[in-house]
Design a protein that fits this description.
Number of strands: 5
Strand content: 5-15%
Distance between the termini: 46 Å
Number of helices: 10
Helix content: 40-55%
Strand order of the largest sheet: 3-2-1-4-5
Order of helices and strands: HHHHEEEHHEEHHHH
């Protein structure tokens, strides 16, 4: 691609490569990242996020939906086995959080493909913000059963009982579709994230992921549509085998107690059930 750009535009391939590197570095500066790719902590923004998630399936208290996605890379020269994921190819495992508008509100792209998503979360600044109370109580993320159940991270019941637990799982599934749709939109907007990125995984791949997330958010805020915006993610192949993920085990007791109380409070009445049928 750099050679083609060189032939069409005039500068040498080396110049094209340098310009790409400079552009990636410019977009990855702290003031750009703070403006377009920082998890919101302002009360007004959080209340707006909660209200927008409530409109989907009456699931209260949510400020984001979390998941991971694998970005395929060429085998690195150093420690190549660490980058082999469960599906057998080399990748970077990216933790990503979307708001209800499918904007990226948090992105962590630095871990090899072999690292589990729950392990990435345990080492993330996002977890530290929740644990330290920087993100206040009453705000939570929604994730699948590959994540630990925490008071600030609500996960589905593996064997839900009829009634409130079943209602909870239905609302959880409908709301979680946001992150599947967000990842699908991000990768359709920037096909480089679908293909094998042939640069250094330790730096440039991660920079490319962050820049794509920033540009995606700019496009969303400026109402720049995808060419096939009418399509959704229902035909897209998931980045993981849902049934193959073992539930995360660390620190779940308090989370399960909170989830049981939360479910009994919010998903046992007729109003919550009617919200699921919308």
């Amino acid at each position: 691609m750099q050679l083609c750009s060189s032939e069409e535009l005039g500068p040498s391939q080396q110049t094209v490569n340098r310009v790409i590197s400079e552009t990636l570095a410019a977009f990855n500066t702290p003031h750009i990242m703070r403006r377009y790719l920082t998890f919101p902590t302002e009360n007004e923004v959080m209340q707006q996020n909660k209200a927008e998630f409530m409109e989907i399936a009456n699931f209260p208290g949510l400020v984001g939906v979390i998941d991971y996605t694998h970005i395929r890379i060429t085998a690195p020269k150093e420690f190549p086995d660490e980058y082999i994921n469960r599906k057998g190819y080399h990748s970077i495992n990216v933790q990503i959080v979307f708001n209800a508008r499918c904007e990226v509100v948090s992105c962590l792209a630095k871990w090899p493909g072999s690292v589990r998503d729950s392990g990435i979360l345990s080492e993330s600044g996002l977890k530290q913000c929740f644990d330290a109370g920087i993100i206040p109580r009453g705000c939570s993320l929604l994730g699948d059963h590959g994540y630990p159940c925490k008071p600030w991270l609500v996960t589905p019941y593996l064997n839900p009982q009829p009634g409130p637990q079943a209602n909870y799982n239905i609302a959880h599934s409908k709301t979680r579709n946001v992150v599947e749709r967000g990842i699908d939109q991000l990768k359709r907007r920037f096909p480089v994230l679908h293909t094998e990125i042939r640069v250094s995984p330790s730096l440039k791949v991660c920079q490319i992921v962050y820049v794509c997330a920033v540009l995606h958010n700019i496009c969303k805020r400026c109402n720049v549509p995808l060419d096939d915006e009418h399509l959704d993610n229902q035909n897209a192949a998931p980045d993981h085998d849902v049934g193959a993920i073992a539930p995360a085990a660390w620190g779940q007791d308090n989370g399960r107690t909170f989830r049981d109380h939360f479910t009994a409070t919010h998903f046992s009445n007729k109003a919550s059930t009617m919200g699921l049928l919308r």
